[in-house]
Amino acid sequence: MRKALGKGIAALLTSAEASKQPVINISLARIKINKYQARKDFNQEKLQELADSINSKGLIQPIIVSPEKDDFRLIAGERRLRAAKLANLKEIPAIVRKSTDEDIFEIALIENLQRENLGILEEAQAYQHLMGTFNLTQEQVAEKVHKERSVIANTLRLLNLPEEIKKALSKNLISAGHARSISGIKDGRLQLELMKKIISEKLTVREIEEIIGNMKTRPSVKKKTKQSKSPELLNLEEKLRTILGTKVQIIQKCKTGSIQIQWYSFEDLDRIMDIISHGRNKYK
Length: 284
Description:
The chain is α/β, with parallel strands linked by helices. Helices cover 57% and strands 13% of the residues.
């Protein structure tokens, strides 16, 4: 199973076929939605198109479910399941396989990443949830979804952006590339100014990167005073960010200091407290 997950959803289906697991028809009423579904927004127009296709040609590819008491939990194929309901089907073809919660989350995430162009913020939230729920490091998440750790880190960093910028990103007023560039700026007010400039002047990612690059090369008194933080403390900050999956800042005052940990919801705070309490998330 773990091998199939590493190769993605196609390998999972091949694995299911190779083990000669039968495709059976299951009542839609017995299938529970995947609680670990990373995608929150489903395009209704495209779902209706899929429903029309199902009515016309039938459902070609079965969904994948896991047994749960007397019913089943969806693993992969939520778009097909939703479209089947729109098409007023009573049953749907499915492959049944036993899976753990972590397997179910991984498969749903991989399917979305490979097939459905998951929104960048949904992707970031899925990575954060995967790290917090199953106590994984960024490196472990990167290995599971076959991406570089830097890609995971840069995607997670988007969750630290101001809400106004995240809304603009969700509405496609700015691109993921714009958002990644802006996220490299620490000043929230400056981030908002840059976002408004992108929208009003229709700037490309390269243009905004040049603007940010020019800003960083300007001499700044603040920049000099900020550089007093030692390499050891900077390294510790990075370790804590990786372990906790959120923004962390170590503030040094002579021989004392403090640690600031950013959280974005009470659920996120509970996740961080659980990691701190149990100490199970180790940095590699």
